[in-house]
Design a protein that fits this description.
By secondary structure, the protein is an alpha+beta fold. Helix content is about 20%, strand content about 30%. The chain is built from 3 helices and 7 strands. β4 and β5 form a beta hairpin.
Length: about 190
């Protein structure tokens, strides 16, 4: 046999072998299924109403102001814990303050109208500002919210602000004002097996 013929026979044999191997890989039964999967995250949506809790003028030592506000969970996930950060700024009208006006404003977290009717905790604004948000949550909101705020729920909370009359001269605060900012932060419940 000539070289051309041997080469042609070898190439033909190789092509036939490859086609048998390739054809053999499809010689068994097969089946497939596809699943459609979805992961959708829930939402935390804490709302405070009203957004301006207190706005009073002409305060004098001994005055008190009771206000209520609502915390609402408009999200789809339950809120386990609410943290409160307090910050304030004193505007000293005469520049004569030797004390912090925040030391003289007492906040009484009175009750949750939806769950209880007792005084929960009290502290001055300066004490609240110095507290870690986690501590405020443990002292106030653990009781105030009685275990959290479920999705879709609203709780009506009541606080009282008191300009403490300490029985001493407090003239340094005449004409002063205090701008209070409360920041409420919601934390989700722990994750669970779904």
């Amino acid at each position: 046999m000539g070289l051309k013929k041997q080469l042609l026979t070898g190439v033909t044999a190789a092509i036939l072998g490859v086609s048998l191997i390739g054809g053999g890989t499809y010689a068994y039964f097969s089946d497939s299924e596809t699943t459609q999967n979805t992961f959708a995250a829930g939402t935390l949506d804490l709302a405070v109403e009203p957004t301006k809790l207190i706005d009073v003028d002409e305060l004098k030592p001994g005055d008190s102001m009771t206000r209520d506000f609502e915390l609402s969970n408009s999200g789809t996930l339950n809120i386990k814990k609410v943290l409160l950060e307090t910050s304030y700024e004193v505007i000293d009208a005469d520049g004569d303050n030797t004390e912090d006006f925040g030391d003289h404003i007492l906040v009484k977290f009175l009750y949750n109208a939806d769950k209880m009717d007792e005084v929960i905790y009290e502290a001055t604004l300066s004490e609240l500002e110095d507290m870690e948000p986690e501590a405020v949550s443990d002292e106030v909101f653990a009781e105030f919210l009685d275990g959290g705020l479920e999705a879709g729920d609203t709780d009506d909370l009541v606080v009282e602000f008191v300009f403490v009359d300490n029985g001493e001269e407090q003239n340094q605060f005449q004409g002063d004002s205090l701008e209070l900012e409360w920041t409420f932060n919601a934390l989700q419940e722990d994750g669970e097996e779904k």
